[in-house]
Amino acid sequence: MSLVRLEARGRASPAMVYLTPLLAVGLTLASGFVLFGLMGFDPLRALHAFFVQPVSSVRGIGELVVKATPLVLIAVGLAIGFRANVWNIGAEGQLTLGAVTGGGVALAFYGDGGWWLLPLMILAGIAGGMLWAAIPALLRTRFNASEILTSLMLTYVAVLLLQFLVHGVYRDPDGYSFPESRLFEDDALLPVIVSGTRIHLGALFALLAVAAGWVLIARTFIGFQIRVIGLTPAAAGYAGFNEKRIIWLTLLISGGLAGLAGLGEVAGPIGQITPTVSPGYGFTAIIVAFLGRLHPVGILLAALLMALSFIGGEAAQIAMGLPKAITGVFQGMLLFFLLACDVLIRYRVRFGRRRAAA
Amino acid sequence: MTDLLILGPVIGSMIVAATPLLYAALGELVVEKSGVLNLGVEGLMLTGAVCGFAAGYSSGSLVVGVVGGALAGALLGALFGLLVLFLMTNQVATGLALTLFGVGLSALIGQGYVGIPMSKAGVIRIPVLSDLPILGPALFAHDALVYLGLLAVPAVAWFLYRTRAGLVLRAVGENHAAAHALGYKVLRIRFLAILFGGAMSGIAGAYLSLMYTPMWAENMTAGRGWIALALVVFATWRPGRVLVGAWLFGGVTIMQLHVQGLGFAVPSQLLSMLPYLATVVVLVAISRDVTRIRLNAPASLGKIFHPDA
Amino acid sequence: MNRRTFGKTILGLTAAAVALSFGIGGFAGAVAAQDKLKVGFVYVGPVSDHGYSYQHDVGRRAVEEALGDKVTTTFVENVPEGADAERVIDQLAASGHGLIFTTSFGFMNPTLKVAKRYPNVKFEHATGYKRDANVATYSARFYEGRTIAGEIAGKMTKSNVIGYIASFPIPEVVGGINAFTIALRKVNPEAQVRVVWVNSWYDPPKEAEAAKALLDQSADVIVQHTDSPAPIQVAEQAGKWAVGQSSDMTRFGPKAHLTAIVDDWNGYYIDRVKAVLDGTWQPIDTWGGLKDKMLFMAPYNPAIPGDVVEMVEKTRVDIMEGRRHSFDGPVKDQSGKVVIAEGKHASDEEILKMDWFVEGVVGKLPK
Fold this sequence. Notes:
The complex is a heterotrimer of chains A (358), B (309) and C (367).
Chain A: E1 4-8, H1 14-38, H2 43-52, H3 58-83, H4 91-108, H5 117-143, H6 147-166, H7 201-219, H8 221-231, H9 233-238, H10 243-270, H11 281-291, H12 296-320, H13 324-341, H14 343-346, E2 347-351
Antiparallel strand pairs in A: 1-2
Helix pairs in contact in A: 1-2, 1-13, 2-12, 3-7, 3-8, 3-10, 3-11, 3-12, 4-5, 4-6, 4-10, 4-11, 5-6, 5-10, 7-8, 7-12, 11-12, 12-13
Chain B: H1 2-5, H2 7-33, H3 41-59, H4 62-86, H5 91-110, E1 124-125, H6 135-139, E2 141-142, H7 144-162, H8 164-174, H9 176-181, H10 186-212, H11 224-234, H12 239-261, H13 268-272, H14 274-286, H15 290-296
Antiparallel strand pairs in B: 1-2
Helix pairs in contact in B: 2-7, 2-10, 2-11, 2-12, 3-4, 3-5, 3-10, 3-11, 4-5, 4-10, 7-8, 7-12, 8-10, 11-12, 12-14
Chain C: H1 6-22, E1 37-42, H2 52-67, E2 71-76, H3 83-94, E3 99-102, H4 108-117, E4 122-126, E5 135-140, H5 142-156, E6 161-166, H6 171-187, E7 192-197, H7 204-216, E8 221-225, H8 230-238, E9 241-246, E10 257-263, H9 266-278, E11 285-288, E12 295-297, H10 306-320, E13 331-332, E14 338-340, H11 348-352, E15 361-362
Parallel strand pairs in C: 1-2, 1-3, 3-4, 4-5, 5-11, 6-7, 6-8, 7-15, 8-9, 9-10
Antiparallel strand pairs in C: 10-12, 13-14
Helix pairs in contact in C: 2-9, 3-4, 5-6, 5-10, 7-8
């Protein structure tokens, strides 16, 4: 027996639920201090650049929200599926399809838009994401094919489809054959809701998704079924819950939200369709979902923290030439600490040898 | 006849392209059979690639390089094991964080090794057989790691299904509470499996940086770790099927490049989709039999184990 | 920054944590007072790619070397071409940079958006076509190098099959394939070019696989418009020829490496920084070629016969002195139709938007 061990608590510690993230941030700051110091950078300046500088202006806070918006939208949807043991890891592809379909509507009606164009694009974006998630749902429920594999493979297919379109029919006719669409007209752009920033209507959708996600899981019978299937699939079977229906539902919800996130990128900060729509939001959102403990409010906070670490890495590069590689290592450490500290919610640390069985 | 002769090198390229996928997927298969899901294969491969290259370059020995890559993968695997087994972190999130960490770490370590060429390992030509038409270049003229990778498939299968240790490992992955009750050290067994998986991913990375394209380049795995993960699911946790999956994926990849070179009027983006679509289609075709999958999938996969619970 | 005692460090950390939790600037970062011009660079890849982004960074370091007493430089690497680009460029502008180079095509619209907000900051966007009062554009006539490579390949090939590894079907790459093929068939009308698109700028294993596939299809010269030296290594291994891209790749295949088309931004970057310092900067478009030293050929492989070197050197000088153009007519497209008439050459605009293949390229270009 080791001298330090973990002892299960009778029940989860409510205090630790809130204390562990703070502890993790403290550990991250301390280890970041050491890491940056070892690499020959002024640690205080680096930490300042990482965590303070990006949010010390209105524009900076706006950027944080812009970056967190797709993460929240996707992670809220994914978390609902993860609770039901539905492993959609292809949100990146569903996001891409949302950009393809929603953005495609903007291009199709280029020149004769109206107030109706944006709602139509939003619907098309959601539908595109749902369509792409429906394929794994169908293959899982009809043919028993694992959604882990199918959703991941379809991500590559979606990205190549986007490439195909921006090199072809989506290409700006006046754009010297470069692979980019026209810039969207004003009718096709999500309105900016805080002036002086790039915060767009998508941020409100993200907040709505948080609220709706919470209501669905905590207050509806479907949410109850999802939780039961996730915790004890056998019991769900006895209770007569329709597992296939839950698979369809969770995949369509997460796909639709990812599609909305993709539309939000092309009709928001990007303003056109480009060969790269997302720097991997669909994958980062998986971490965000778990970091937020699969709870919509937790996801909101986790997304803001993840967004801050990305933007902070850029700020540190600009302010002091901190290489991007160190940012990756630092982000990894931050996540490790956040995940590891959660152990204190259910376990307490005991020193000394285990006493004889009581 | 000359048209047929091209089959030899094409099959040979397919086998070589499948080799890194094979190592990484076999390693991950053993990890998952023990009940642990490690989504950090991409990060492990990159770390193995850079450390393998560094070790091989500084020592001048490819063997040292491959061992270095394996050790680096195992070491990073140990970090993952520490987190998910002893601190009981969520496996999915920790694996993804490990990928972020590994991408950064490998770039950091690799800063001094960018743009340095290395000489490639010699091809082992099996006498007589390598002179056969078609079959010679296809099967009997590769480097040692290709042959070792092919041998690793029956070796892993033998270990899992024919040895006592393999039985225990599968038992731990199937029902950790029962295995614990029988007196098996669940955490120790899983930790060893994770070390093995890390080492195999490390070798997969080192294969890329030492043999396939002997150089170090940031992010040079370009998503192959994810494909390896998908192959384990594709194979429904059977080592032999991992080989089939790796050859299928590698084969379609090579084939679509050939189709392009011959000048078929199909857009390259659509051709590039083929390996992914083929994997999905074949998976659908072989997934019909529910019970067989249930039989092979480790029931405790991804579940957290604590001895007191 | 001064040495700090441990206690102060802890205080500092606490301050940072407090500032973090309130989301506001708790204590001032060290902002050095300076009068030097700050020059920012935005790269799409890692500086260690040893290809495209690396060559831009060589240019940045040349600026530091030449004008280090008057300027400081900053770079941000691995910037995705999506919503993030605008933020990075904005941060550079907001943090006092007076001149910002955005070095990838996908940064075009983000650069223009930020430029509107910062009229006093000068911007330079590489390979794009939109300019503004404070946005200049610049690129290199890489196709001129491909003409020289084409003539060398035409003389060196025995199988008359050239394998061409291409990244994305954009005009720069298509124009490069055409310039190469025109020159190739000028010296060797029997030769043809097989193109494989890898849909990536940088994926060493995939580039290697493409090179192998082309060699298996009896190509004996591999040309690449992707950034990694992997194809050179494959050609070296197989005992065939190869032409490198972006930087001199000789050391990856000393026997195979015929030459490489090397980007050289050093002179341009130094000139533009000087122009800002003297107040003579204008939002112009620069499309420089061999003459302007924005690209050059890596040393020729000693295995290339002397008369071939003589021939291509003459071509190089002719291009530099305007006697020869990479797209001199008559040029036929794949259907045999003359697209560029005899006695004429393609205009800059035609080259900039090129989306068709010349005769001699195998395979159709998707429209």
